[in-house]
Amino acid sequence: MAKLNIVSAINQALDQEMARNNRMIILGEDVGLEGGVFRVTDGLQAKYGAQRVMDTPLAESGIVGTAIGLAAGGMLPVAEIQFEGFLHVAMDQICNQLARMRTRSRGRLGLGVVIRVPWGGGIHAPELHSDSPETMLVHTPGLTIVQPSNPSDAKGLMLSALRLGEPVIFCEPKRIYRAVRGEVSEEDYTVPIGKAHVAREGKDLTIVAWGAMMREALAAAEELQAKDVSAEVIDLRTLSPMDSETIIESVRKTGRLLITHEAPRTLGLGAEIAARVAEEALSSLRAPIERVTGFDTVMPLSQLEEHYLPDRRRILAGCEKILSF
Fold first, then answer.
1. Angle between helices 312-323 and 213-225 (to 10 degrees)
2. Could you say which of 88, 124, 129, 197 is catalytic?
């Protein structure tokens, strides 16, 4: 198996599905000739032509609206929103049209649209280029929200998303686009949507993370191991539908839970995870649930970005807090 980064793994998934399914079309700003601002679609227009990998105007609502029409006509559109902060322009199309079509048609029409979005902070980008607005999307019924943390999952989850036949927002953590390399099979394979992954087994506490935060969570768990503390680390992988069963099972074993994400704290996904654990496994908890998150502020510009983003040290401090309770 080749060792790929997340960019190459997603590119391989898109390439393989385009070869398999001639109904698949990629559209977005600079996805064709330039191969995308992060080069995730590099080489695909040259291989499949400009009618299947199309550069669009700078109009996010138009990109998503076109994708909806294409899907209603039987195509498989993969739309790229260049940065997550630009999603807001298309939220009417996403929330009021795309997400509701299955219900609006009384189950007759599902829209197989995959919207790819580079996600999160950590690359010192300008304003509106480093946010984590997953709560708004998870709160919208009818959308599947996926966020991989490693190359192998990125490919397998993308192939699953392309074959789901329902709207998927595929959040790609740009901070680790090229920072993580791993073995990726060249074969056709899928990773199940809606199933979390126990990335590291442990018995003393549970850490839940996803996307770029998995790297920080695993680094913290490694440091805890040197102190004879065994941390179980769960990669959520799919934010909606959420696999709370895997988390609850882990908490019943460890008795302690820390959740970390880079989105703001208030109403972040960590709050929902904490609520589900409190409802289902309260009697198993030996300490209050701890959240290590971004702050309830706008993502700062580059000089303060590293202060805003949770890291290994903040996760370790949170773990020490609940271990000493």
1. 50
2. 129
